[in-house]
Amino acid sequence: MIRIDSVTKRYPDGTVAVDRLSLDIPDRAITVLVGPSGCGKTTTLRMINRMVEPSEGSILLDGRDIRQQPVNTLRRSMGYVIQNAGLFQHRTILDNIATVPRLLGWSKQKARDRAAELMARVGLDTSLAKRYPYQLSGGQQQRVGVARALAADPPVLLMDEPFSAVDPVVRKGLQDELLRIQDELGKTIVFVTHDIDEAVKLGTMVAVLRTGGRLAQFAPPAELLSAPADSFVEDFLGADRGIRRLSFFSAGSLELQTAPVVSVDADAATLAARAEAAPYLLVTDSDGRPLGWSEPDGLTAGAVDRDRLLDHGRPFAPATDSLRAALDGAVLSPTGWAVAVDGEGRVVGVVSQQVIGEAIRAAHTRVARDSAVKAAR
Amino acid sequence: MNGFFDLPSDLQYGYLGLVGLHLREGLIPVLAGLLIALPVAQLCVRFRWVYPPVLGLTTVLYSIPSLAFFVVLIDYFGQSETTVMVPLAIYSLVVLVPAIVDGVRSVPQDTLAAARAMGFGPVRRYLQVQLPIAVPAIIAGLRVATVSSLSLVSVGMLIGNQGALGNMLYSATTYNRPALAVNSVLTTAVLGVLADALLVLVRRLLTPWMPPTKGAAR
Ligand SMILES: Nc1ncnc2c1ncn2[C@@H]1O[C@H](COP(=O)(O)OP(=O)(O)OP(=O)(O)O)[C@@H](O)[C@H]1O
Ligand SMILES: [Mg+2]
Fold it and tell me: Which region is the signal sequence (chain B) (predicted)?
């Protein structure tokens, strides 16, 4: 565990960048530092690998003061990723990634083998190995940055706004990739961002800092969204935190209805029976994949006109998606009903906005009860 | 005896001999200048306040005519090649020091921060990161210094046949053979162009990592 113990950083010009900050950063989890520009995120991160020395307080790594080991030994045991990757422009991709292993005295061959292995791990084609950084896209460079930080298999990874210079689509890819890699490797990651959505998506724990380098709140993202400590955190979370919080509730408990679902090759009797069930019917192809909505009157057995069906919106998968995805599906659907599918995209049922709304209220009650129990203990 | 490449015997060298001598007298000072400029430039980068006075000093030295240097240096080294090369080495500093300082300073902050974060000490950082990235700027400086040094060698004729190809200028007047002067000037120019081309080639070989658009700008 990394323990930041009432650390203050005062720069020579008098700026207090971090003010009596205490944080216990858990092992094998992603801890996100988030806050407005200039609130001391980078300073905090750089104090962990001693690129910045605290003015007061101390930082412990597994109970030992980080000042007790040689500074470069400490740094080589912590991967570091920055915005724009900070790659060595004069070295090939492979040699960039092999940097820390080489510093640690690995043979050239071993370091390069390791680097090639990491390229695959972060989703880089090994054909890029001999290229130079200028020949890569921003997203690829950022992947190289991550691979380089992981090369010597350090237990700790420090990441300073690593994905903020790439476009949103690439960023989402990199975030998903990081989560996947973290699932496999279980590093202790300290991740700096000013993007609250990124913080909520990636963080196991999120520390919100306010200007002046003071800690505003340190909590798991769901708790942050449901119980912001004060108005600063609330404002920082933004207007739609209620909606975003739904990301933390599984859609698995939603009660799905199958009666309004009919196949294109349903016979007249089935259609007539189903027409009773709901004002709209969802038509699927013969494999069970959704085609679109229709009023029961518009359907003729054996002669369904696919072009006249209403768009079914984006389906959600109850097994893996959240209530947010379900609600999104319902809001976007012309009928107000969301379509639930299995892993293969086959319809398993439909659910109305009303039912989703009830599920949301139930989830909130559950959380409130849990935290009351926790508080009582 | 009157061919373009036939030289009067008091020049002591044949044509190719003079070319060799010229290269030696022109290039050794640049090399020496580079060896002095590297640590001086590093000092200027480490301690910012050192740079302005160093820059001022090199400029002042550059403004001293070589003849003045010769007058002083002849007392120590006589009428020798060394007397010619010392001022040339000093002149090269005015180009090389700023070139190296700018080159080293042009290394992006992100790159330096990354190097520090990965556990590069100051020496490794200088040798493995800053210097290699400064190579294009250093070679740009070397090109200017080399061409100017090669053309300045000729003044060595003032202290008695130490000007290599420049000595032919003197013979041209003595023997009334203008062709010798033309030969001297042309050969010096060709040497300059060749040395420059060679440096460009070296730069290309040393910096495969540069985007071609940047490299294309000569
Ligand atoms: N070397 C320095 N000398 C003086 N002040 C500094 C120095 N580095 C940072 N600061 C100041 O300390 C404060 C915190 O800076 P820091 O870089 O840690 O912020 P940050 O949260 O990372 O901001 P951003 O989101 O913009 O990157 C700022 O007010 C900044 O101006
Ligand atoms: Mg920052």
Answer: none
